[in-house]
TrEMBL record, chains A, B:
UniProt GO MF annotations: monooxygenase activity; oxidoreductase activity, acting on paired donors, with incorporation or reduction of molecular oxygen
Protein's UniProt keywords contain Cytoplasm: no
Pfam families reported for this sequence: Bac_luciferase
Domain Luciferase-like: from-to ranges: 30-387
The keyword Oxidoreductase appears for this protein: yes
InterPro entries named in the record: Diverse_substr_monoxygenases, Luciferase-like_dom, Luciferase-like_sf, NTA_MOA
Protein name listed in UniProt: Luciferase-like domain-containing protein
Bilayer-spanning residue ranges: none
Family to which the UniProt record says this protein belongs: Belongs to the NtaA/SnaA/DszA monooxygenase family.
CDD domains to which the protein is assigned, alphabetical: Nitrilotriacetate_monoxgenase (cd01095)
Amino acid sequence: MPDPNQMILATFIHNSGAHPGGWRWPGAPAVDQHDFAHFAHLAQTAERGKMHCYFSGDSQGFPSISGKDAFAATDYAGKLEPTTLLAALAVVTKHIGLIATASTTYNEPYAIARRFASLDHISKGRAGWNVVTSASDGEARNFGRDLNMDHDARYARAEEFVDVAKNLWDSWEDGAILRDRDAARYFDPAKVHELGHKGEHFSVAGPLNVARPPQGHPIIVQAGGSGPGRALAARTADMIFTAASSVEVAKEFRDDMRARAAAFGRNPDHVKIIPSVQLMVRASEAEARRADEELLDLVPEALALRTLSLQLGVDLSHLSVNDRLPDLPETNGGKWVQQSIIRMAREEDLPIGLLARRVVVSRASFSYTGTPEQVADLCENWFRAGAADGFSLSPNYQPGVLEDFVDQVIPILQKRGLFRAEYEGDTLRENLGLPRPENAFVANPALGCEPRMWA
Amino acid sequence: MPDPNQMILATFIHNSGAHPGGWRWPGAPAVDQHDFAHFAHLAQTAERGKMHCYFSGDSQGFPSISGKDAFAATDYAGKLEPTTLLAALAVVTKHIGLIATASTTYNEPYAIARRFASLDHISKGRAGWNVVTSASDGEARNFGRDLNMDHDARYARAEEFVDVAKNLWDSWEDGAILRDRDAARYFDPAKVHELGHKGEHFSVAGPLNVARPPQGHPIIVQAGGSGPGRALAARTADMIFTAASSVEVAKEFRDDMRARAAAFGRNPDHVKIIPSVQLMVRASEAEARRADEELLDLVPEALALRTLSLQLGVDLSHLSVNDRLPDLPETNGGKWVQQSIIRMAREEDLPIGLLARRVVVSRASFSYTGTPEQVADLCENWFRAGAADGFSLSPNYQPGVLEDFVDQVIPILQKRGLFRAEYEGDTLRENLGLPRPENAFVANPALGCEPRMWA
């Protein structure tokens, strides 16, 4: 059983690094983001540090090629699809959790439930699903739409999607598979259930054609910051990733999410709030400041401005870098990031050029470069302030920053008693201190429908 | 370069075995079909035998739980999802091709193109996609429909789906990724293309967000036997799996497919026709006959009858085992299997009970148990008769039959010069002797559309 006084540590998968200048960092090796060996090394490094999980963000589109020359300066030239990548990583790791992003807007619940059940079986209980609703029109255009589905409609669909997926995972009860050769009974049909789900967005018969995952349900992760996003997370998520620009913002968010979870009748301790920290580690304060500057200088101004436009979902190309951000229309994209950026611009009265330089580094999340002790202090302060159950590290460049964190920061956290020395359990769920969910069909025998005759 | 006088050898993935009695075979270990180690052992065994590919069939549904007691006698209690399973298998193998089934009816081309591109990168050029259109209503009911899409509509959708997937794979040209740190150019935007595809079934902007796969395109596999199925395969497939009840049927099919491929302007030698053979290997003829009988006796009659009904897509429960098959209505399912079964019933005037026992063993494909020499003779005869470019083995139980084939039959084929002693190339495509496809955007610069501004 994990010690509740110890923090959770996750790390984001990035191609060459979270920082857009990271791939140009002279000290870092050139990373081929289609080479599995790169990701295997990162996952094994995080596991060496006893970290909880390795997380792959995702989108089902390319940001834009209209800003060709600007975007050609980023390493975003594709990435491996998360469920296939993490299935392969399951083979080269033993303990670390493997969390893949998949959209509820451009997928079907049967297919997603099946892939994550598979990943959970292959990894022997280490899978997690980061539920996203796909904020960009670029993704919509790859799936038969000109514009993205409306924000609230996406979340209504996501609510039903997650419920259907959970019931599909429960459609084979634990112990349904018998393999009784003498009785010619491979499975016990009484423990296999049809859903007969007919909802507003989905109609799904079931049962799933994969046995119940080792964790019961793979870990559900969510990162929505809007009202509907928070409601979905509070009701369904085991872990919530968030981008917080300060310890105050993080604490406010965590308090809100815990209260919302309690309002859904859940134990707030079973919802882990994990802000992301974009990171570098340096031997001294002076070196840290220099590294920040040098890295930012590797980002062309045109890329910074394009990125700002993309994050806001608004074309800013008619403005000069010295202008202030105009009032912006409500958009259909990811609201949390937009609002954080707008707040930053207003509070500090930043001209667009400076705002762009700020946003291009870390979007809305906290960015920090410091000595190992300073980074450990930051983590300890946020954790003790009740602003975080743990952190998701976004290394500015790879694999150096993750190696630095594992080799230099984690030992300090361990010495302070804030991080474990060994994995406590076998599954991700156990290592997060989360209970294995009860089977919905066992809890409620009236769930589902009578088996129907096939035609 | 592979020797054109040598055959291709593939093997099907089955949970415990292709034969429905296989899981009860007393000599075989109990197989946990959710345990990755089982499949890793099989893939490594096939690779030890220098076999070309390991193939995972699939459906996105459970056959039926209305016939609960009958189906509880099969080992079909779920299976791991193929793309995740094969990604994991890529890590524990080096040479063997990895072919996963995915449906064009219940998927979107962007998502499928991306997963298979990922699998091709992770495996360094060993991925294949078996294109299926999903024949069962059971699958339809998991994806929002009461009945399956009409047969011809499924194939019209599949034609467009495969074309879009291929163009997505081409949307990043070879060499598009530069990683030029000094010039701040990670990629060359001139080598990245939007599709702007607007077709009858799909609207897909592109580009894909994965670089061009190592093979250019993963191998396309098809197995449709109907008119539209053959047309799709002849136009788009690199390899065609087929179920043929005799060498004559196989030859007729191969001749037809080669002629159809030529009519599409393709080199018929670039379409590999691979019948499946359901197999056991025994030391003597007498032991072979006894094994066939003993294995069939492990299949309850009720399961055989249910399976026959399922394969025909018609409820036969009102008939007796001594009745003959009545005239059947045209159904919406997989036509090739249905027609093969009906032909078998008529030609041999089989009563339903016997027909069911025949069908439950191997559906429409060729089933054979013999000595190593006899199995080698069978392969040689079909190959020399021009009935097959190779074979896909369906072992009756696992892992024993695959081990027997690799250890006892392959050495004979090698001695006869009919099978290679070592892998010739690095990618599946090279090992099959297939050319790497030209990039459609390079061949036709007018393809695609002008990049659009994102909103």
